[in-house]
Amino acid sequence: MTGKRRQRASIEALPAKKQKEDRRSAGDENGTSQKYRISLPKGGRVPSKTQKLEMSPTIEKFCGKFKKPEDSIHWIISNSKMTVDEFFKTKWQKSPFAMHADEESKDLAEIFSYNYLAELISSRGIELEPGLDFTTGKHTDKESQGERIHQCLTKENLDKALAQGDTVQIMEPHRFQPGLHALMSPLETYFGSLVFSSGYVSPPGGQLRGPHFIDEECFVIQTSGVSTWKIYKNKEVLSTSYSSDFKLDEVGEPILTETLRPGDILYMPRGTVNECVAGDNLSCYITIRTFQRIYWANYLSETLPQLIDSHERKSVELRRGLPLGFLPHARIDNNLYADYLLKLADSIRGDSDPVPVPEGMVSEFMSFRMPPFGLEIDTQTETAPTENSKIQLRHKGHFTYYKRSSQGYHADEGADEEGNEEPEKEIDIDEFELVLLCSVKNDISSHGIVELEPMTDDAFAIDTAYEPLIKKLLEADAPIAVSELKGINKDGKPLNALMLAQGLFNIGAIEVVE
User: Fold this and answer.
1) Are the beta carbons of 210 and 144 closer than 8 angstroms?
2) Sequence-ordered strand ranges (E) for 304-417
3) Rounded to the nearest 5°, which phi and psi values hold at 102?
4) Could you tell me if 367 and 503 lie in one domain?
5) Are residues 231 and 122 in the same domain?
6) Burial label, 13 (beta-carbon count in 10 A; 0-12, 13-18, 19+)
7) S-S: 190 plus which of 69, 103, 499, 501, CB 3.0-4.6 Å?
8) Is 337 helix (H, G, I), strand (E, B) or coil?
9) Helices (H), 215-262
10) b/e for 132-145, b at 16 or more Cβ within 10 A?
11) DSSP conformational letter for 257
């Protein structure tokens, strides 16, 4: 499992009929309809939605709450009167949990509400495109129906949709709501997982979906009005896929019913079967979702092939022949198969080499995560490092590196003057390199919306001999002079610290202090 993974709109945007047709469809591991996957062609446009928006004093104050990664999770569970440790020990991935505020919040309506959305599309000139930025629909006795607006969202068609009983879902509103960006970016660092959002405006009694579940941990934040949530018995604990709508006779009676008012927050683990109905007035809420594909089976599927390849050379047990007559039927007893998995486990336990990094998971996270809130970078106008510069990592939480097998010789680097390529050099399979990644220059306007390749421009590879210098930068509490970054390579030659500094500068990882 490598490289390209697909980001998608929340499955809550899909009408149930579409889900039934497309669930786990061929060639699509998420089961997401091609219709809802938004690709950005090379040279194409990212919708201009994130021009710098003025923040009200309320939003500025809200954004100021989130300085450290743990600040965001503290705010989310603050109604619970629990510590963070208590929440993760007793509730996380275990059971739904409603956290009611002591008094209704008036400020959250400025984060997301009907009035906020109406102002966004009418006064601030933000264009929201159907399918890409929003969808509408409602649940009837038969099924969920959607896709009623086929042009950019306006106040007129917003009001019309609500008048006919449709709920309006806004995909990834943190792209143009600084308050959500400020809340969610630290969460990505805290969770070590991509974090997505959706905003919902429902008319009185409105309902977008019937009982269903999704494949993400979900926090519901009620921002205005009232909504009632019914929770049903799980169909699959911690599901790694999503469902279509269930009929009521398929889910039975609710095991929990919670009414949310402004400031209330509801947590639902992956796979929680739920449905939501608006109260007697307009109801607005936000969902914050995370931990999609962040589970052990996914991690093992990416690292086991590398481990098997490595330990085949280290363990004679793994090199023993298969039973006589294995082919053509290729049947192995479950116990014997498990025995050899245990032999692999024993070899891993006794090995001093670290477990390989899941390169695809790391690359996806660093490529698609949000940039830090409030950080603007232009390496074209900033001062580049020199030998005499003092430098420091710009945002340690947005920088990482991992070791991989060297990619070796590139043919186009060795062509002679006549254009004839030199023969490819033999690559030593034991040679490694460091891949350095930084996400501070990621584009908030495309977060969770467009399909992109994992980062290339904002990553570079370097000899493993530079690892002590990188660690020194990570551990430093004060700027370090480039001239103080010293070391030697395996041939005993001095390392080029300026080259390292310039490479880190180009990907936005460091800043020149003096």
Assistant:
1) yes
2) 390-393, 399-405
3) -65, -30
4) yes
5) yes
6) buried
7) 69
8) helix
9) 248-251
10) bbbbbbbbeeebbb
11) E
Task: Tell me if 230 sits within 8 A of 274, measured CB to CB.
Answer: yes
Burial of 260 (0-12, 13-18, 19+ CB in 10 A): buried
Q: Is residue 47 assigned to a domain?
A: no
Picking from 423, 506, 416, the residue whose alpha carbon sits closest to that of residue 462 is 506
pLDDT in the model for residue 411:
32
160 and 109 in a single domain? The answer is yes
Asked if 95 contacts 231 with a C-beta cutoff of 8 angstroms, the reply is: no
Q: Which residues on adjacent β-strands are paired with residue 199?
A: 170, 286
List pLDDT tens digits, range 178-223: 999 999 999 999 999 999 999 999 999 999 999 999 999 999 999 9
Amino acid letter, 287: T
Q: What is the pLDDT of residues 266-292, one digit of tens each?
A: 999 999 999 999 999 999 999 999 999
Asked if the structure places residue 177 within a domain, the reply is yes
Q: With contact defined as beta carbons under 8 Å apart, do 370 and 444 qualify?
A: yes
Angle at 204 between CA 201 and CA 208, to 5 degrees: 50
Write out the residue range of the structural domain in which residue 209 sits. Answer: 66-290
Q: Is residue 89 part of a domain?
A: yes
Closest CA to 36 of 151, 127, 133, 173: 133
* pTM of the predicted structure, to 2 decimals: 0.86
Distance (Å, whole) CA 413 – CA 102: 66
Which residues, other chains included, contact 23 with Cβ-Cβ below 8 Å and sequence gap of 6+?
31, 241, 242, 244
In angstroms, rounded to a whole number, what is the distance separating the alpha carbons of residues 159 and 149? Answer: 12
E strand intervals along 369-431 = 390-393, 399-405
Question: What is the count of structural domains for the chain?
Answer: 3
**Residue 146 in domain:** yes
Structure tokens at 389: 């510069």
